[in-house]
Amino acid sequence: MSTVTVSHGGRSGMTMVSNRFIDEYMRDANDTQVKIYLYLLRVAGTNLPSGISDIADYFNHTEKDVLRALKYWDKLHVLTLLYNDAQELHGIRLEDLESRPANTVPVTDSRSSVPITVSFSTQLAPSMDKPVQKQDSGSSEGFDKSSITLDQLKAFKNRNETSELLFIIEQYLGKPISANDIRSIFFMTDILHFSTDLIDYLVQYCVERGKKDFRYMEKVAISWSEEGITTPKQAASYVKKYDKNVYTIMNSLGKNAAPTAREMEFINRWLKEYGFSLDLIKEACQRSVMATDKHRFEYADRILQSWNQASVRTLKDVTTADEAFQRKKSNLAAAKTTVNAFNQFKQNQYDYDDLLQKIKVN
User: Which domain holds residue 345?
Assistant: First the structure.
């Protein structure tokens, strides 16, 4: 598998940081970008791990975070990302900032964006073996399992730890696993860097919930990877909290059954995309229950969507927003009363909450 080689001259036993970097570049960079650059300075010329996944694990970031930081510095020519003929990232060269004229404006890089494939090595080495590719289409967030060759599968199955893992998984499933299933396991071990213990726990967790489809397991694996989960203990803690939140939300909406796929989309949006606390979600759910007997998820989603747009983050913010809405409503009512008195005709009276509910339902 290919590796990323970081090259830079320097003395052993210390990490040299350019004053130019501190004076001109560090100020506008975010924490992740600064930390990753300093880490690259540290590992340059050493035998410390320098694969993209190693950096991500070290800082508890996602690989996407690491790649975004590298591209940021590459754009500013603080470092240069080196690609081979197949347009795969295989090296990082840290540039000499001190040799530049002061206040130099970096020239925008005209290279087109290309897919970056980086191995998950633990050492700096100039290996250029062809790695598994990530494609623009395919399963598991862009990972194309069909790109795994038969030779790679054979080598994977011949590992001592793999044969034991496959046996355990077959016991959980109650049937032999297919070659495509093995590709999914390969994805978890060699792409997501899951340990055999973590995969064991993941498969058991999914099977206990009646989910024996490896496509479902891949989605769970990706979710755990994005949460920075690396051990069964972390997974158990996350699952316990996550399942409890899901049960609480379903109960708040007056539902006792397990959520459907569509309902899980709503719950994931509220918890992950909006980042709302359970108290806020419960408040929106309770309002939905009071407002309608049907389409409660949709109604709660519109409430939470409006709160997200209004930067509502606490129950106190909700109270403030409610008071502002009531004042606005009272002012509108007073204005209509004045207009009616002036024009001497009666305006129609509408139940705006009822109209809003009908609009949402439709």
Answer: 244-362
The answer to whether 103 and 115 are in contact (CB under 8 A) is: no
54-76 per-position pLDDT tens digit: 787 778 788 888 888 999 999 98
- Helix (H), strand (E) at residue 82: strand 79-83
| Token output for 187 | 């994805």
Backbone angles phi, psi at 106, to 5 degrees: -60, 140
CB burial readout 166-176, b (16+ within 10 A) else e: beebeebeeee
Residue indicated by tokens 């508890």: 60
Distance of CA 250 to the CA centre of its chain: 24
Regarding whether 287 and 214 lie in a shared domain, the answer is no
Measured CA to CA, the distance from residue 229 to residue 194 in angstroms comes to 9
pTM of the predicted protein model: 0.41
Residue 211 and residue 144 share a domain: yes
pLDDT in tens, 149-169: 777 888 888 888 888 899 999
351 secondary structure, DSSP code: -
